[in-house]
Design a protein that fits this description.
mainly alpha; two-stranded antiparallel ribbon; 8 helices; globular
């Protein structure tokens, strides 16, 4: 069966499932690897983002004198993310991190709401949210050291050297809390929808789930995207110092 069709056929053909399914197993350098529904969903999300980027490029290469709906929506999105980053990081640092924040914003948002497309959200897999948390953690410490140099390391021994273990534990918890918060909220919605489709009679699967999808996928997904990006910009700026 086609991998995308497998995703849509899960849970009685409802298009929702809270289980990760292995689609294809193969060996690479002696290691057994698997292609799962998460990988397929990520590919679909990435293809949508690539097509969106191409459409934006083509549209803005020949902008209309009177912006249409698509152009206005893109301009609103760019302005929204730009103001969001600048408010948290200041104008100078906001420009530096606009591309990164905008990229993860679009990826996480589309991943979170992909349940509306009949996919299992990639962010309902901890193997996706943990790398996002680790990437943010890397940027936090890299930019902190770049900005404060030796003073960044010195801060871990303050107010007294005995606080070093607690300061290290606090830093280790950052990517874990970021990734678990996103994963837990998206996964809970995925489980709820999967249970609804699995346990409710056929007539209850018509109409009512649309309202549940709006809440769990669209509303909750947008909120979790906003929270993840907000914490990312705040944590990075906190290590770099006050906004300029």
């Amino acid at each position: 069966m086609n991998p995308a069709a497998v995703i849509l056929a899960e849970s009685g053909g409802s298009g929702m499932s809270f289980m990760i399914r292995h689609l294809v197993d193969f060996e690479l350098f002696g290691q057994k690897l698997s292609i799962t529904t998460t990988h397929i969903a990520i590919v679909i999300v990435d293809l949508i983002l690539i097509l969106f980027a191409i459409a934006v490029k083509v549209k803005f290469s020949h902008p209309d004198n009177v912006p249409g709906t698509f152009q206005s929506a893109v301009e609103f999105l760019v302005e929204f993310v730009g103001n969001f980053v600048s408010d948290n990081m200041g104008p100078k640092n906001g420009k530096r991190f606009l591309n990164y924040t905008g990229s993860i914003f679009l990826f996480i948002l589309l991943s979170n709401i992909s349940g509306l497309l009949g996919l299992r959200p990639p962010t309902a897999d901890y193997g996706v949210t943990l790398p996002l948390g680790l990437l943010t953690c890397f940027l936090i410490h890299f930019n902190g050291m770049r900005s404060k140099k030796f003073g960044y390391v010195k801060a871990y021994f303050e107010p007294i050297p005995l606080f070093l273990p607690m300061n290290l534990i606090s830093e280790i918890s950052t990517p874990i809390s970021l990734s678990l918060r996103l994963f837990g909220n998206v996964m809970s919605g995925t489980v709820m929808m999967g249970l609804w489709y699995s346990l409710m009679p056929v007539f209850a699967r018509l109409g009512v789930p649309s309202f549940l999808h709006i809440y769990f996928d669209l509303f909750s997904g947008a909120i979790q995207t906003y929270v993840f990006c907000m914490l990312t910009t705040i944590f990075i700026q906190d290590k770099m110092g006050d906004p300029e």
